[in-house]
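It is worth pausing here to work through a concrete case rather than discussing structure prediction in the abstract. The textbook approach is simple: state the sequence, then state the predicted structure, then interpret. We follow exactly that order.
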Amino acid sequence: MTRRIGLVALLAAFLFPSAVAEADNPRLVGLVGTNDAFVISLRDGSGNLVTHLDPGTYDVAISDKSDFHNFHLKGPGVDTLTPIDGKQEVTWTVSFVDGRYGFGCDAHSNMRGYFTVGNLPPTKLSGSVGPARSISLKPKASEVGPATITVNDRSRKDNFHLSGPGVNRKTGVATRGHVTWNVTLRPGTYTYRSDKTKKLRGSFTVKLPF
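Step two, the predicted structure:
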């Protein structure tokens, strides 16, 4: 009996190689607009929200349950979507490479999500404070994901304090020196400031990859 099942499986693999390959792909599930609600999500096979994936080929099962939302998946090598004015159940087979991917509804900018794939080189930012009453951070915009922030604190009267989604790092007010912070940047606005001089402050924005 076992031998017969093995022969059947071998014959199926020979006749329908694409179907067998698809079955081996990890499965993701995208959902948008249940009961026309303003919600969108992408989950893995265990039901966890997708935040990071290994590079490779995936089957993405999309359940678009709304007549005025859609599910748009976009990133390196991928740009596929369901219609805004219709419901759809569809499975996309896509290949993800190292990079940043976003998904959202094209009709509503408040319905967005993102995830990273593979090993991303950290974004490099450079900050400074002092020796005069000055503070800066370059560049002014960044991407989601890992970042390395090097700060040159040249003041004994002010410090460099960076805060934003998931980040709250600062140097000492009365000390000088170089520090390097390894952080993960998320979508939103980050501020950098001196805790002693209110006018020394600035901000930058981390945008979604969509």
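Step three, interpretation. Residues 123-207 form a domain with the Immunoglobulin-like fold (CATH 2.60.40.420). The longest strand covers residues 108-117.
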